[in-house]
Amino acid sequence: MIAAIMTSPARARNLGRPVIGLILTLVLLPGVVYVLAESLRKPSTFHIAADTEVLEMVTTGVSATRWYIQQADAMLGAADPLSQQPLDSFPFSGLVEIGPRSNVRMVRYGNGPLQITLQEHESSALESSGSLFNAHDGTLQGEATQEEAKELTRAIPVVTLENLSSQPTTWHWEDTASLNVHIEELPVSGSLLAVGAIGSETYAASVGEPPPVLRAGRVIVMEKRLLSDLRYPVMELDLQLGDEVYVMDANGNPADTACVFSVVGQQGPGIEVACHATGKTLQVSRFGGHVVRMEPGPWDMILAEPTLQAMIPLLFSLIYLLLQWLMRLIFPRRIKSPDTMKE
Question: Where would you find the membrane-spanning parts of this chain (predicted)?
Fold first, then answer.
């Protein structure tokens, strides 16, 4: 009995070291996992699917965008607000080529015709929006002046129309054009690499037309898995009536957005849009000045990343073994001498 009582403090000391190591491991593990997830974090991919009445974006890149459109009424040039004579329109069916840095606005109310407006994007607006294209065109940064950059980007006209309905085929080049497309049997589909918003936050009715709005949609945020090219969903958001959606990069500038749109006849109203963009933050502007920001953080990645979840037991073991080694190094066990044992 006396020997057991005397040896109990030694056993307590031997048991205390593993318990302390376990407690410290549980305390340090969340921080280590957080730092690991933050260090391995990469830009998110935002997938946006929406039914909208309006899509207004500015084309990027160095090549032109080409669409095929049938049964449209085309108008070239900008209308003079002081003139009472309307612009002449002509029937058009053929190829539409849109140059870089062109403003593209598509509006469709219900099952009505698709209204497409193409015009040159003002350079002053580019500068005021936080150097919208600095990340996409290195010639604008330092080497070329604003006028030189404008000449370079206008090597491709704003809009080129190849009218196949006329005999012979006619070509038209202009800085501004409008198309009123009648949707019948064949849908109007196309792609667009641009920056800008999906939907519109403008709710004041103008003369002649009601304000176009986004009807419904959904956003899915995808992250890249560790040690793989596969992606997994992290966050989801349902879009509401009247939302305006845009993706921002790490510098706070609008991110490149790749969109595919389709406009069908009586089967579906509005414009069906599917876009994806790689950036940091999704911003949703809602009526009343309310802005919803959606940005996945490290904890969102930890809760959804299967590879990182599988690594947590391994990290736990490594931290525990490291702490045990440090405690043995700092607090070595005392070896009793034979004289002390006899006493």
Answer: 310-331
